[in-house]
Amino acid sequence: MPIRFPIAVFAFSVLTLASGAFAGDLQGSGALLQGLDKVTARISPIHAPVGQVVRFGTLEITVQRCLKRPPEEPPESAALLDIREVRPGEAPVALFQGWMFASSPSLNALDHPVYDVWVKDCLNVKSPLDNAPR
What we know:
Layout: H1 4-19, E1 26-27, E2 30-37, E3 42-49, E4 53-56, E5 59-68, E6 77-85, E7 93-101, E8 115-123
Antiparallel strand pairs: 1-5, 2-3, 2-8, 4-5, 5-6, 6-7
């Protein structure tokens, strides 16, 4: 019986992290990603607005959501991403669909022989209080 409590706590923690839900999360209008081209060893910032497709090499990246913890909590940004590879004359191939976390880039990583992509931050984050009547 005592073993059930730690398992339940662990399962709840994993599900909470996997859902990208933070207590009082702040939503951004885009994500700042970083891309690495392993062939040229060049690192590039990628500004990706929510809902728009951006290209990095042969990759098409779409940010579905970007969430950031409020300043009074431990820092964390997470983005819900869809990443596809599009090559001329070939059908697009889905490479990644899910949450990426800025604090743990290897937790959910893009597995590609040429490119690495990871989350750095959320852009234009607004507090729910920004839209409150004054």
